[in-house]
Every structure is written in C-alpha cells, then in structure tokens.
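Q: How do we represent a protein-ligand complex in a form that can be generated token by token?
A: Start from the inputs.
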Amino acid sequence: METSALFAALDLTPDLISGGTLAVHSPVDGAEIARVTETAAADMPAVIARSQAAFRAWRQVPAPRRGELVRLLGEELRAAKDALGALVTLEAGKIASEGLGEVQEMIDICDFAVGLSRQLYGLTIASERPGHRMMETWHPMGPCAVITAFNFPVAVWSWNTALALVCGDPVIWKPSEKTPLTALATMNIFARALARFGDAPEGLAQLVIGGPGVGEALVTSRDVAIVSATGSTRMGRAVGPKVAERFGRSILELGGNNAMIVAPSADLDMAVRAIVFSAVGTAGQRCTSLRRLIAHNSIRAELVERLTKAYGTLPIGDPRHATTLVGPLIDHGARDRMLAALEQARAEGGTVHGGRTVTEGVPQGGAYVSPALAEMPGQTAVVREETFAPILYVMGYETLDEAIALQNDVPQGLSSCIFTLNLREAETFLSAVGSDCGIANVNIGPSGAEIGGAFGGEKETGGGRESGSDAWKAYMRRATNTVNYSAALPLAQGVKFDI
Ligand code: NAD
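Then emit the structure tokens for the protein with nicotinamide-adenine-dinucleotide bound:
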C-alpha cells in the first residue's frame, strides 16, 4: 500500500501528521514521514484531570459492560489489521509478518480481556469467628499511565489497556517518541470502537506525545494510580523510585538478556531454527531476543558451524518485502551501539562472525546490519549487558549446574530456555534451583510469548507482569471484607475487651 493510502486507511489526517515539532523517520530508509504535535507540559494537568473524571464514571460501569468496549476494540482491530500492521513495519521497521503479528497480539489480548470482564473473582475465606464471613473484593484503582518502547509500539499499549479498561481504569498512553504514528492510528481505531459503544466517558483513553519529560508528568502525579512503564533498565531506574516515592503502583517491564542452554541430547535441527528466529527476528530488537547461547562443549562447534551457515543465507533488506527476514535497526544510533559492542567483544577475547553494516541490496538511508555471532571465552562484561541489536554471544559449558549458573549470572531476568530431551535436565531448569527468569521454556526459544501467560521478568527487568494469567490484579485494588451476621461481637485471636 502507498504511504498516503495507508495514512488515509488509518484516519491519519494532515492535521495529525504535519505541522508539529516531532519528526518521525521511517527506519526503512530514514526518510521523514510525518511531523506530529507534542503535548505541552502545561497541558498535562488537564489530561490527568480528564482521566480522573473518566475514572469516577467508568468505575461504576459493570465490568462485563466495560468488556463490551474491549470486544468492539478487538473487532475494529481485526478490520484494521492489515493497515496497522503495515504502519508498524513502516514506523518501527519490523518485517511484514511481524507487523501483522503485533496487531494479532492486540486482538488476542482483547479477546482475553472480554472473558476476564466476567471473571474478576475474589476469594471467600473461612472466618475463625462464628456468624462471620470473609471475602475479597477487587475494585478499580484509578488512571493508569502506559509508557511504551519503540519495539512493540502498539502491542504493549493493548496488553495494558485491554486489562485496565475491564478493570475500570482509564488509560493515558505515552508512546515512544520514535513511534507516535502507530499510536495515533491506534487511537483512531479505538475511537471507532468508542463511537459504536456509545456512552463511554470522555478521556477514558488518552494519548500524550513527547519524550521523557511528558512521561515524567505522569510518573510524578499522585492522581495517576498506576504507572506501567516498558523500556530500558535505565528508564526503569529513573521511573521506579519516583513512583515509589509517592507510594504509587508501578509495573516495570525493562531490559532482558535472554539465554538458551543447548544440552548434548538436544534436537539440534529444532534448536538451530529456534536460535535463528529468536536471535535475529525483529533484528534482535525484542526484549525477549536471544542474546546468549550456552552450548554444551560436545556440540558447541557443530552448532556454531550450522548457525554461521544459516546466518550467511539470511535475507536482509526492506522489511516490506515478503521474503525479507531481517529488517533495519530502529536508527543509526542503534547500529553504532551494535558495532561498538562487537568491538568490545573482540577486545574481551571474542571471535566475531558477521555483524557488519549492509549497504547493498537494501534501501539507502536505513541502518541495516548482518546479524552477529560472537564466540566468547566466558561471560565477559559486554555479554552481561543488553545491546539492543542482533548479537548472539556463544559460550560453552560442561555440567548443567555450570550452565544454569551462567544463565542466571547476569543482572537481567526476563526470558530463558533449555533445549534438551532429558527429563531430569528440563525439570531441573524449571525448578527452584533452575532459571531465575520470569519466563523459562523447554524446547522453545525465549521470544514470541503468547498472551495467555503472565509476561515479565525479575531483577533488573523490573518484576512487573502484564498480559494473561492473573496479571489483571495489578490494575485493581484488593479489599478484604469481614461481615458479621451474628448478634455478638467476638474479637479475633480470642482477645477480650469488655466494656
Ligand atoms: P527507552 O527506555 O529509551 O524508552 C522507553 C519509553 O520510556 C519511551 O516512551 C521513553 O520516552 C520513556 N522514558 C524514558 N525515560 C523516561 C523517564 N525518565 N520518565 C518517563 N518516561 C521515560 O527504551 P526503547 O529504546 O524505546 O526500547 C528498548 C528497551 O525496552 C529495551 O531495553 C527492551 O528490552 C525494553 N523492552 C522491554 C519489554 C518488556 O516487556 N520487558 C518490552 C519491550 C521493550
């Protein structure tokens, strides 16, 4: 689709995409594709006040009715899937099928949240006192700020928003300053759902555009009950303490440094496919991308040989072409950081395959690279950092204990996996003495999670959980209720206090 037709299909009218101060560049060729208007700092109090007003109305709407709005959003996303997926490709540089996959993930979480809107269950609890009943009830929290990263420019908003809306919380979204167009398009799609829904309060889902300064207004406001922030650990270090200082609730989804252990019994054909997808998919720009390969010394050389061969045939180029598997990095800064990390890997004793700037057979102006494999003498300083690019560090091991220790010996704790056909190894990896990550898989790579599970990680990944399972509880407050239906007033723990 031509860019102008794409913009028209997503209601990106000239007033939305021109005349502003924030230039939007496509990573495909570096060309400027829009200039959007940034939200002024002076406007933030009004945005937050609108959200508070929306909260007072929305919390009274029955949850299944709130779910109806999310059901309509899912329908509108289905109708707009092709266009929004193509815009993700244009603005974030993802290959076409990953752009569409991102929108599918939005649809999936809407379906999940619609069901959830009838399942916001609390427990009933046995009381120790006669004639008493205890229970838990869950209530909406208040406005939820959603700060998102460039690499999942729309899916992360939907993970948060679909849940927040059924839980009774309005949303204020601050997307990455690198991807405001997909955010504007998503809000237009949401507006279609709102129009069909009819009576939602104004300001239920708002968008603010700009850099960290705009995010900070949300982070520091006592009127923003929840701050869900996705991005680098550096960002989390700035945001987390500020939210904690005012006793707000934060959901932090930060950087990862994900590993795969390949055991001697592994099905190497499967392992190779999983490694290539998870290390080079999205050009290594997923929080769950595979960055460390911990291969048993008996199969390490064979694995590296097969991977080097597979890497040599990867189609790198325009992400809009159906045959491309590796698109561009988000910008030239990301490319420079990748090349610097590889330089450091060499200085630390590594042998690097690939990892070069690619200028032939690709659109000019974009930051295209060949994915890199770096054979390392151990888990050196560069390996312990997240470089947001397609670099796979390879290390060897002898015993499973050693492999698990290496896997856990990094500051991040997002995703992990083991390839093995040995039941003892697999179960040990998943046990309390195994992986310390929020996601631990067997015979599946670390990336490409489904929405049904809780998503997030430990340590410097921030500890937050989003998406499926009971992640909804982070968007609600829990009240413990004790009801006395007797004619007496017994005290707990047998305490006597007669007056
Ligand atoms: P980034 O940290 O540069 O920016 C993320 C968002 O935070 C942007 O919207 C940015 O404007 C905002 N921000 C930055 N500093 C802020 C501050 N002080 N106050 C308020 N807002 C602030 O990250 P990026 O380069 O866009 O994305 C890549 C990073 O995101 C990687 O580290 C990746 O692992 C991580 N990520 C994590 C997850 C996850 O679920 N764990 C998902 C996607 C991306």
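The longest helix spans residues 63-92. The first strand starts at residue 22 and ends at 25.
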